[in-house]
Amino acid sequence: MTALNDTPLVVAGKEYHSRLLVGTGKYKDMQETREAIEASGAEIVTVAVRRSNIGQNPDEPNLLEILPPEKYTILPNTAGCYTAEDAVRTCRLARELLDGHDLVKLEVLGDEKTLFPDITATLEAAELLIKEDFKVMVYTNDDPIIARRLEEMGCVAVMPLAAPIGSGLGIRNPYNILTIIENAKVPILVDAGVGTASDAAIAMELGCDGVLMNTAIAAAKKPVLMASAMKKAIEAGREAFLAGRMPRKRYASASSPIDGTFF
C-alpha cells in the first residue's frame, strides 16, 4: 500500500506499490526463498541468470516455479559478469528464456574482492543494451556524474551502491546519494551495502525511490523475519521522507512554549 499522498514507484512505465526489490540468492533452499520474498512484499525480484536456473537447465529445479512471472516482475541481472560482452550475452539469454522480457539489471564488476563496478565496462554494456531495446536498470558507484551520464544514455533506473556488495556497512556516503537523487529524472534505487532495517530506512529518508537487497535478508539469522522488517523499514522511511523531518538543532527547545503563560 502506498503512503498517504504518495505516488507509486514507476519503472519503465509500470507502476509498483512496493519500493523494496529483493534478490533470490544465498537462501538455504527454495522454500526459504519463497517465504522470505513473500514476507518482503516485493513485486520486483532479481535473478542472477548465471547462477540461477530459470529454464536453461531443464533437469534442475526452476526458480520460476516458486516465483511465477504472473505474480512477480522478474528482473534478470548480470551478477558475476566482469566484461561488457559477458553482461550483454547474459541479458540476451535472459530475454530468450523469458519470452522477450526486456527489463534487466546490468552490473559489470571490476574485481572479485570488492565487487565494485567497472564503470568503463558498465557504460559500454549499457550503450549496447539500450541499442538492442533493453530497459536497463544499472548498478553503479555513488558518483553523481556517472549517474547522470547513465540516465542521459537512456537507463530506466540508476542504482548506486551504498557500500560494497554483501558488506552490510550501510549508507557510507549519504551526500553523494543525495546529490544523485536531486539531479535525477529517473528512479534512484540504492543497490548493495544495506545490512539491517535502519539502513533501508535511511536510504528512503534521503529520498531514494527504492532499495534493492539480497544478502541483508538471506544472511540474517531469521531471513523471513528480516524480510518483514525490511518491508516495514522501507515504508517507514518513505513516509518520513514525505512528512519532512524537523530541522537539526544544536540545543534543545521546549516542546511546550512558555511565552505568554501565567505563573
Strand proportion, as a percent range, falls in 15-25%
Percent helix, as a range, is 25-40%
> Order of strands across the biggest sheet?
5-4-3-10-9
End-to-end C-alpha gap? 49 Å
H/E element string? EEEHEEHEHEHEHEHEHH
Q: Specify the overall morphology.
A: globular
The biggest beta sheet reads: 5 strands, parallel
Please tally the helical runs, counting DSSP H or I stretches of 4 or more residues: 8
User: What class, by secondary structure content?
Assistant: alpha/beta
Could you give a quick summary of the protein structure above?
The protein is built from 8 helices and 10 strands.
Please describe what this structure looks like.
By secondary structure, the protein is an alpha/beta fold. It has helices at residues 30-40, 84-97, 119-131, 144-153, 174-183, 197-206, 215-218, 223-243, and strands at 9-11, 14-16, 20-23, 44-48, 73-77, 103-106, 135-140, 157-160, 189-191, 210-213. The protein has a five-stranded parallel sheet. A three-stranded parallel sheet has the order 6-7-8. The longest helix has 21 residues, at 223-243. The N and C termini lie far apart (49 Å). The mean pLDDT is 93.
